[in-house]
């Protein structure tokens, strides 16, 4: 691929991520082309349709979350799950339009499954370290992420709460519920 073509592709993917993160599925390819500073024909030369571009963007987004989980797993097991959930919260707050349920079948299932496997490993590590109660399940962790996504969505759609970051308070409640009472996962909210 020529350098200018590669630069256009990178610019399109970056612009698409920003546009889809903000507007979700309602964003159009024209919106993306405009944000990238290229014409629609340039976009269509790189991506046959919106689905192809969405898949590329979501693959990058979820791959970064896998990297976050992998990094969290390399740290102390008692804080790995908490670190992961806090980072996911930040990512979803900044890019709520990229969450998997918004896109349905376009979400890269194999990467999402990898993310779930890694979050389960983080949970097991935190449980072995005594930081998380033994009765917390991988489904509880998934439900925590769904809940964060819901709080973030309601914040974005309610001007009175916009910027209040209620999701952070909600995450603190979740972490206290997961905690055994003796670790960082059980710290009171500040």
UniProtKB/TrEMBL annotation:
TM stretches of this protein: none
Gene3D superfamilies per record: Tetracycline Repressor, domain 2 (1.10.357.10)
DNA-binding region (UniProt annotation): 28-47
PROSITE patterns: HTH_TETR_1 (PS01081), HTH_TETR_2 (PS50977)
Keywords assigned: DNA-binding, Transcription, Transcription regulation
GO molecular function: DNA-binding transcription factor activity; transcription cis-regulatory region binding
InterPro entries tied to this protein: DNA-bd_HTH_TetR-type_CS, Homeodomain-like_sf, HTH-type_TetR-like_transc_reg, HTH_TetR, Tet_transcr_reg_TetR-rel_C_sf, TetR_SbtR-like_C
Pfam families in alphabetical order: TetR_C_43, TetR_N
Domain HTH tetR-type: 6-65
Protein known as: TetR/AcrR family transcriptional regulator
């Amino acid at each position: 691929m020529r350098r200018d073509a590669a630069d256009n592709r990178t610019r399109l993917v970056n612009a698409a991520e920003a546009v889809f993160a903000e507007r979700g599925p309602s964003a159009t390819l024209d919106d993306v082309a405009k944000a990238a500073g290229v014409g629609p024909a340039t976009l269509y030369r790189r991506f046959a349709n919106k689905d192809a571009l969405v898949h590329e963007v979501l693959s990058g987004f979820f791959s970064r979350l896998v990297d976050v989980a992998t990094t969290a797993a390399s740290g102390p097991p008692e804080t790995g799950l908490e670190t992961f959930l806090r980072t996911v919260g930040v990512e979803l707050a900044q890019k709520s339009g990229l969450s998997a349920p918004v896109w349905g079948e376009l979400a890269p299932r194999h990467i999402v499954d990898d993310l779930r496997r890694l979050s389960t490993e983080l949970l097991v590590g935190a449980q072995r370290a005594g930081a998380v109660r033994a009765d917390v399940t991988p489904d509880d962790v998934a439900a925590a992420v769904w809940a964060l996504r819901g709080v973030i969505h309601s914040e974005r759609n309610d001007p009175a709460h916009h910027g209040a970051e209620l999701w952070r308070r909600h995450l603190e409640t979740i972490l206290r519920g997961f905690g055994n009472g003796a670790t960082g996962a059980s710290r009171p909210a500040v």
